[in-house]
Structure formats: C-alpha cells, structure tokens
C-alpha cells in the first residue's frame, strides 16, 4: 500500500466541512475588512525565502523543501506566504493597480518540521497583508481582524499577545543590552541559544529548554529599549485596541521566529491545542519590501494555521449538513419520472439525491435516513399515472399527495424551514 507522506494529511469528508466553514468565515471577514484575494504559486525561487524569511531563521536553515529542478534552478515549496505576496506586489506594481494594498491568500505551506499534533509538514494558512501605510491604526485593524476571526469561529479560551520588537534604529541597543545581561551565563545556555546569540540574540526568547528559563527570565525587555518613534507607535496601537475593547496582553517574549519583523508583533494562542498553541501570528515588516527589491514601503500582516483552527473549533461546528431532499422511486416504471423530478429539484437550486442503483423501497428509505434527508419525495407508478407525488416531511413523518407541478415548491418550502 502506498500511504500519504509523513506530516501530510488527507482531509476527509466529515472533516472537510469544518475546513469549508473556516474558509467561509475567513473570506467573508476579509471582504468586510476590505481585503482582496491574491493567489501566488506554491513554488518560488529559493532566494526569495533566503532573503525574505531570513537566513538566520529555523525555517530557512532547517525546514525548507528546496531542490534543483530539471532546468538547474534552485526552487522551494513555500514555507510561508509573505515573501511571495510581497514579490507579486512588486512584480505587478499592485500599488498602482489597486485602490489599497490589502491582500489575503489561502493555501498550503511546506515546512520540514517534526510532526506532532498541530504541527505538520504540509499545512494551510490564511495569510493577510497590508502594504503601504504605517499608521498605527493599520496595525490595530490587522490585529482586530485576526482577533475577530478567532471569535467568530467560536473558538473558546483564546488570548491575544502583543509586543514591539523595535526597528533597525533601536534594536542594536536592545541586542547589546541582551548580550551584556547574559554575560557569563551565555555558555550555560543550550546550543541553539549559543547560535542565536551570534546570529540574532532576540531569538533567545524563543527557547523552550527548561534549564535555560531562569536565565532568560532575567533578561531585559524589548519595549524598554524602543526609540521614541517606535514607543509612540506601539502606544498608539495599544490605544486603538483598548478603545475597541480588544483584550490584549503584553508579552515581552513574543519575538517571533522570522527575520523581517519590526515594531508590532502579535499572536493569538488557544488553550485547547497543547504545545502547538499558536493559532495565528504576525507583525510589521517595514524593511521587507525594499529588501526584496521594491519601493520603500512598510507592511504588516499575519497568518493563521487552518489545521489548528479546525482542531480548536467547537465540536459541533460545521457538522450539521445542509438540509436536502431525497427522491424514492417505487418500481421500475416510476424511475424515469423520479429521475425527472430529481433533476427539476436540482435545477431549482435545491440539494437533492436519489439511489441510482436499482434497489427496493426499504433500502432507498434507509439511504434517505442515513443522509438525514429533510424531505422525501416518493414517486410510484399509480401516483405518477394520476400526475401526483407523495411529499414526506422527515421531521414528523407526515406525508401528503401533491400534484407533480407542486412537488418542487413543496420540497423547497420544507428545506427552507430547515
Ligand atoms: P508563522 O508564525 O510562521 O508566521 O506561522 C503562522 C501560523 O501558521 C502559526 O501561528 C500556526 O498557526 C501556523 N503554522 C506554522 N507552522 C505550522 C506547521 N508546521 N503546522 C501547522 N501549522 C503551522 C508566518 O508564517 C508569517 N508569514 C505570518 C505573517 C504574515 N507575518 C506577517 N505577515
């Protein structure tokens, strides 16, 4: 037997309805907030992520699906959406083409991670990006969208964490303070932290090694080292969130695992998820557009992991099938009439099914039950001859004869009731 690759998943009927629900809410919300969809390729040049996601990140160092294609080019299955979205923005001059650059994307991402609950090698994201304005109200709008998304999905026990990691003007001061505070303790930290201290000291805050925590707890916090413009920006963002009644918590450990972040960073975490508790995360990336060869524009966005959202949804969400009709044919001579009725129901926009293999009435009724049909239309030889159809309300079992011409409206009325 050939099985699916480790860390990848089939999304089966029964589960896929929950995915459809998450995607429906995402699209509806993005539309309400003025975001338009952008679809970029799953495969990009490797250098896009080396430059965009960043050479010092775990993603680029350890997790990318990169290979040389048959033409000799180095290509990568995208580990995240942001660099591709920014590339497309630059390549197509979207700043001119669109009234506002507010973009969203939904699709698969690939990271060669160690799979566990909530962490996969192929996973899916809703990604949202705003490129252009650097007003703190934009940060707050994006955080609001993220928070509202999780709330509208009905996910219980969630918390919103925010932080500011400063900008190239103030971060060196903070990094220096971090290294000074570490001082003689540095050799006692884990190997990963030793590497982080050399490449990107902020990332020490990502460390999960138990023994390192007492040392990390004593380190200075980024927000105490912000320059005046960054401090004002962050205060304004928090002010908007407060006025809108969005409950946030400051987390000085929220430095995020990608290189491009500046200023605001945020995450929404869910309790139900165990170790992989980040439902979504994002932040501002004011240098990325220029870094990738575009104009000097700022940006902010986030990505939500759809697998994690589906895991965290309330148990019943997306599990109630839409009401549908079922057509039962009694006897061979009624089949053509039944098939005609089936087609009429569908043409009228109703969800309708019929058992197409030749089977007895009992088997057909059983199938209608399994499908939880809301209404069953029974076509029999005698009734057909009289131009009538039996309409059975499956909720209370009552049934009545209606003229064939009234069968579709009668079914529609019951389906409407739900
Ligand atoms: P990220 O934090 O790497 O950010 O990923 C965002 C979300 O994707 C995570 O919070 C998690 O829900 C989900 N996720 C990440 N890795 C996995 C995995 N292996 N399995 C399942 N779910 C996963 C980004 O990707 C940035 N591009 C977000 C962003 C957009 N920042 C600015 N704009």
In brief:
By secondary structure, the protein is an alpha+beta fold.
Radius of gyration of CA atoms, rounded to a whole number = 28 Å
Question: Which stretches are low in confidence, meaning pLDDT under 50 for 5 or more residues running?
Answer: none
The CATH class of the largest domain is identified as: Alpha Beta
Q: Count every beta strand, where a strand is a DSSP E run of 2 or more residues.
A: 16
- How would you describe the shape? elongated
In this entry the ligands are:
histidyl-adenosine monophosphate
The CATH homology group name of the largest domain: Bira Bifunctional Protein, Domain 2
Characterization of this structure:
There is one protein chain. Helix 1 crosses helix 12. The protein folds into two domains: 242 residues, BirA Bifunctional Protein, domain 2; 93 residues, Rossmann fold (3-Layer(aba) Sandwich), CATH 3.40.50.800. The strands form three sheets. Strands 1-5-6-11-10-9-7-8 form an eight-stranded mixed β-sheet, with helices on both faces. The protein is elongated, with a radius of gyration of 28 Å. The relative contact order is 0.12. 37% of the residues lie in helices and 22% in strands. With 418 residues, it is α+β, with helices and mostly antiparallel strands. The protein is built from 16 helices and 16 strands. The model has no long low-confidence stretch (mean pLDDT 95). The protein binds histidyl-adenosine monophosphate. Histidyl-adenosine monophosphate binds next to strand 6, strand 10, strand 11 and helix 12.
């Amino acid at each position: 037997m050939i099985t699916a690759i480790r860390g990848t998943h089939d999304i089966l009927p029964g589960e896929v309805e929950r995915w459809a629900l998450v995607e429906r809410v995402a699209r509806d919300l993005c539309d309400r907030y003025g975001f338009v969809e952008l679809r970029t390729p799953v495969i990009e040049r490797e250098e896009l992520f080396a430059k965009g996601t960043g050479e010092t990140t775990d993603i680029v160092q350890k997790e990318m699906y990169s290979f040389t294609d048959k033409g000799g080019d180095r290509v990568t299955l995208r580990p995240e959406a942001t660099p591709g979205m920014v590339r497309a923005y630059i390549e197509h001059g979207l700043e001119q083409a669109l009234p506002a650059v507010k973009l969203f994307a939904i699709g698969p991402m690939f990271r060669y991670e160690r799979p566990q609950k909530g962490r996969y090698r192929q996973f899916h994201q809703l990604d949202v990006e705003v490129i252009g304005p650097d007003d703190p109200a934009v940060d707050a709008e994006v955080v609001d969208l993220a928070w509202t998304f999780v709330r509208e999905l009905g996910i219980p026990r969630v918390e919103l964490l925010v932080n500011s990691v400063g900008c190239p003007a103030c971060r060196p001061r903070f990094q220096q303070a971090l290294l000074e505070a570490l001082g003689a303790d540095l050799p006692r930290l884990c190997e990963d932290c030793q590497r982080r201290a050399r490449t990107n000291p902020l990332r020490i805050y990502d460390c999960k090694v138990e023994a390192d925590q007492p040392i990390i707890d004593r380190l200075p916090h980024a927000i105490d080292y912000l320059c005046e413009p960054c401090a004002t920006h962050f205060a304004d963002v928090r002010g908007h969130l407060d006025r809108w009644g969005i409950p946030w918590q400051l987390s000085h450990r929220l430095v995020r695992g990608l290189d491009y972040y500046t200023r605001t960073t945020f995450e929404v975490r869910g309790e139900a998820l165990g170790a992989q508790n980040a439902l979504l995360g994002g932040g501002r990336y004011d240098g990325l557009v220029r870094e990738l060869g575009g104009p000097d524009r700022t940006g902010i966005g986030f990505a939500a992991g759809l697998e994690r959202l589906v895991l965290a949804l309330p148990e019943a969400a997306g599990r109630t099938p839409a009401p549908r009709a079922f057509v039962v044919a009694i006897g061979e001579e009624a089949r053509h009439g039944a098939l005609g009725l089936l087609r009429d129901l569908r043409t009228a926009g109703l969800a309708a099914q019929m058992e197409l293999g030749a089977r007895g009435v009992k088997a057909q009724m059983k199938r209608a039950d399994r499908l939880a049909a809301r209404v069953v239309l029974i076509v029999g030889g005698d009734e057909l001859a009289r131009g009538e159809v039996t309409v059975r309300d499956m909720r209370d079992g009552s049934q009545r004869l209606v003229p064939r011409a009234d069968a579709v409206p009668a079914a529609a009325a019951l389906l409407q009731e739900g």
